[in-house]
Design a protein that fits this description.
mainly alpha, two-stranded antiparallel ribbon, 4 strands, DNA-binding
Length: about 110
Amino acid sequence: MTSAEQKIWHTVALIPVGKVASYGQIARLCGLPGYARFVGTTLRKLPADTALPWHRVVNAQGRISFPPDSASYQRQQQRLQQEGVIFQQQKIDMRQFQWHGGSESAGEY
DNA sequence: CAAGGGGCTGTCA
DNA sequence: TTGACAGCCCCTT
């Protein structure tokens, strides 16, 4: 258990429904630039009954980092769609669904 | 102590 | 718009 993991979990938990964030983005919001991969590995270690919305975390390209044929991929995609996120060709429109952590607003573009 | 691998990223062709 | 490369950080062998 590390402090970094705590921060990651806390930040992931803040992602609002209907929005997504990238691994690198989460890392940065935690004050841990460059920890993108660590974020992924950390989320992977979470228990199945975790309350964390790990499914709202995707890579910077707006795509799920799992093989499209894997169960994890479909599970994540389904949950996101269930929350209102729209997939197009297995990709998310980040310009519309990416979460701008904490302070932003004013200016969709 | 060194080497390999993983739910990544940004840049260049 | 894709595909290939080189960095980055941590954990397990």
